[in-house]
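Researcher: We plan to redesign the surface later, but first we want a full-length starting point. Tokens attached.
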């Protein structure tokens, strides 16, 4: 793990289009932005502490991305001005008018570290206009910098703000970072557990195990589903019968249990099927 991070390079800006009907982002061809100097991204959000019983009882964290940030460069490429900043090119002249609106984009970059480099992606950014500055030439020439304000916002479909990768951890993804925007997989089911059976044990069901022989004197079972993300919901059925709250009433013999995990923002879902054979205890 790096003790220090220094250096900013390989900054690329990717135009984005968001289809609110399908809730899918599409990324355009990356635009290289050379001459990067630095980036500063103050967080947008806070942690609220709830006190009870003379102590911190619960904390609530609000993550709204990063606000009031700045990228600093020594130049602004023409493609950035026209494709991202919204300026027009007319007869070879770059024109900014009062109706100029910057476009949302995705930014990828590389941070240098003392042990390994790290690539980052900021999924949903919006740059603002830079200030216009110039300075007369003196005895020593000092190159002028452009400070570009930027807001980094959560994506509309899933709330994701940024991601990062190191070469040793994910070499294939790392090496294609600027060409293919990394899409995090939809968070999936973590565990699916039945309640206690007659001998006091519980079954933990996952994607690699889906057959269970349940012998219990309790026909009613409480099933808990642990999900990895607040955008997920789970629907449990025994055959065609819905099981509100995960409460299942087993029928004698084989029961086909389905767990449908839905990702609300993207309208995608995964379905898992478990076969549980219920045999009433003879005692």
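Model: Full-length starting sequence:
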């Amino acid at each position: 793990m790096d003790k220090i991070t220094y250096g900013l390079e390989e900054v690329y800006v990717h135009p984005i289009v968001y289809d609110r009907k399908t809730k899918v982002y599409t990324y355009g061809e990356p635009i290289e932005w050379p001459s990067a100097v630095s980036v500063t991204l103050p967080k947008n959000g806070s942690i609220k502490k709830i006190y009870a019983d003379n102590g911190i009882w619960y904390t609530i964290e609000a993550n709204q991305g990063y606000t009031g940030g700045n990228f600093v460069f020594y130049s602004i490429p023409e493609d950035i001005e026209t494709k991202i900043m919204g300026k027009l090119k007319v007869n070879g002249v770059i024109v900014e008018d009062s109706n100029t609106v910057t476009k949302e984009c995705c930014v990828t970059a590389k941070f240098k570290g003392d042990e390994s480099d790290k690539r980052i992606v900021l999924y949903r950014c919006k740059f603002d206009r830079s200030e216009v500055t110039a300075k007369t030439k003196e005895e020593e020439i000092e190159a002028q910098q452009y400070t570009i304000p930027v807001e980094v916002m959560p994506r509309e479909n899933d709330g994701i703000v940024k991601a990062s990768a190191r070469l040793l951890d994910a070499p294939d993804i790392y090496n294609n970072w600027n060409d293919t925007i990394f899409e995090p997989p939809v968070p999936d089911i973590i565990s699916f557990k039945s309640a206690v059976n007659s001998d006091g044990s519980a079954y933990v069901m996952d994607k690699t195990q889906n057959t269970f022989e349940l012998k219990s004197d309790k026909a009613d079972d409480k099933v808990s589903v642990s999900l990895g993300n607040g955008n997920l919901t789970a629907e449990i059925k025994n055959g065609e019968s819905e099981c509100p709250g995960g409460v299942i009433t087993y029928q004698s013999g084989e029961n086909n249990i389905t767990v449908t995990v839905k990702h609300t923002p993207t309208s995608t879902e995964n379905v898992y099927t478990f076969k549980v054979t219920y045999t009433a205890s003879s005692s």
